[in-house]
């Protein structure tokens, strides 16, 4: 297995990223939203850039973080947590080709990913 390098964070703070986010969020901001929920699994990677655009006036909710906290709480309550000393594993299944996914996932998640399964949904 190879060691995964940290992602290039400069891309998350460049002008093109900011312009793209602005393009998509401006209509919502103009509509007067007070809260924005990051409802897709990859949006938390852009939370810093989105937060810069939103400023202090709009609350940013990271659904991935909230979901992870809820799962941890459930596992704790059910005494299902593995000991901290025990190393976990990761299985990934996709419904589409993995063309660019693997490189992006390795960088963004900073995990070693070796096996990948593609499943049909038909």
Order of helices and strands: HEHEHEHE
Ends distance? 33 Å
* Average pLDDT rating: 80
Proportion in helices: 25-40%
Strands side by side in the biggest sheet: 1-2
Oligomer: single chain
- What's the number of helices? 4
Architecture overview:
The chain is α/β, with parallel strands linked by helices and 122 residues long. Helices cover 39% and strands 11% of the residues. The chain has 4 helices and 4 strands; from the N terminus they run H-E-H-E-H-E-H-E. It has helices spanning 15-30, 47-54, 63-77, 101-109; strands at residues 35-38, 59-62, 92-94, 116-118. The strands form 2 sheets. The protein has a two-stranded parallel sheet with strand order 1-2. Strands 3-4 form a two-stranded parallel ribbon. The longest helix is centred in the N-terminal third of the chain and has 16 residues, at 15-30. It starts with 14 loop residues before the first helix and ends with a strand. Residues 1-7 have low confidence and may be disordered.
Describe the secondary structure blueprint for this structure:
Layout: H1 15-30, E1 35-38, H2 47-54, E2 59-62, H3 63-77, E3 92-94, H4 101-109, E4 116-118
Helix pairs in contact: 1-2
Could you give a short description of this structure?
The chain is an alpha/beta fold and 122 residues long. It has helices spanning 15-30, 47-54, 63-77, 101-109, and strands at residues 35-38, 59-62, 92-94, 116-118.
What labels would you give this structure?
single chain; 122 residues; alpha/beta; two-stranded parallel ribbon; 4 strands; globular
């Amino acid at each position: 297995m190879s060691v995964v390098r940290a992602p290039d964070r400069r891309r998350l703070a460049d002008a093109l990223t900011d312009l793209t986010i602005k393009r998509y969020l401006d209509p919502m901001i103009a509509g007067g939203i007070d809260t924005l929920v990051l409802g897709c699994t990859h949006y938390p990677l852009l939370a810093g850039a989105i937060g810069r655009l939103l400023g202090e006036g709009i609350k940013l909710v990271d659904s991935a973080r909230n979901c992870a906290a809820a799962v941890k709480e459930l596992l704790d309550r059910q005494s299902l947590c593995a000991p901290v000393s025990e190393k976990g594993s990761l299985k990934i299944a996709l419904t589409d080709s993995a063309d660019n996914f693997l490189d992006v996932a390795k960088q963004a998640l900073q995990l070693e990913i070796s096996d990948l399964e593609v499943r049909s949904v038909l």
